[in-house]
Amino acid sequence: MRHNICIRLVIMACVLHLSSLMNAAATDLCDGDTLYKFFKIKKTWDSAREECEFLGGRLAFINSESTHEKIRSHLNSVGNLMNSAGKGYWFGLNDIDNEGTYTFVGTGGIELTYDAGWSSERGRQQPNNSMKKDPNGQDCVQLWEQPPSPQTPKWNFDDAYCSNKKGYICEIQNSGCGGGGNLG
Questions:
Q1: Half-sphere exposure in the Cβ direction for 160 (13 Å, CA)
Q2: Are 137 and 54 in contact (CB under 8 A)?
Q3: What are the phi and psi torsion angles at 104 (to 5°)?
Q4: What pLDDT digit, counting tens, does each position of 91-147 carry?
Q5: Is the separation of the CB atoms in 4 and 155 below 8 Å?
Q6: Are strands 156-160 and 140-144 parallel, antiparallel or unpaired?
Q7: The domain that contains 108 carries what CATH number?
Q8: Is residue 179 part of a domain?
Q9: In the chain, which ranges are E strands?
Q10: Alpha carbon distances (Å) from 183 to 34, 97, 166
């Protein structure tokens, strides 16, 4: 009897957790069979990665101008996605394993080939691997909300401290979104 109660409690906790994640998403973006879920909940990069995996996906894979432009346009056109949690959104790019070699989580080590996405706002070219707050430097990448609202942000790439808490973008393949199109 006790065992059954424990199992029911665990199942209820999992359902509530999944329900809160699904409801926490702001307006989603569908492209072909790929679903992008935008979360304004502040998480570290690693916690965001874990949440995306829990949902059956990964942190977003943005490795082309067309993907970057589509996501950037979506962020600027959906009002409640502006003023992001933590001034940016985590996606799957990082150089945790090898400083200066940017790869995407959940891809088997695919390296960044789209270099035009890096920010040069405020006279600072990114990535800059600042070590001001952490001697290990900045190893995780966000879509940076610069310049800040009320101007229209560019949402370019910026390396940041993985322990910072920000919003995040999950990508779920074969989601049943439907339609054609392909973000590379």
A1: 26
A2: no
A3: -105, 130
A4: 999 999 999 999 999 999 999 999 889 987 666 778 877 778 888 889 999 999 887
A5: no
A6: antiparallel
A7: 3.10.100.10
A8: no
A9: 29-31, 34-43, 58-59, 88-94, 103-104, 140-144, 156-160, 166-172
A10: 8, 26, 24
Token pair of 69 as six digits: 């432009």
Which domain does 71 fall in, by range?
Answer: 26-172
Residues 176 and 70: their CA atoms lie apart, in Å, by: 19
Quick check: is 65 in a domain? yes
Q: What does the alpha-carbon distance between residue 31 and residue 67 come to, in Å, rounded to a whole number?
A: 10
Q: What pLDDT is attached to residue 129? A: 75
Domains contained in the chain, number: 1
Question: If you count them, how many residues does the chain have?
Answer: 184
Distance CA 19, CA 23 (A): 6
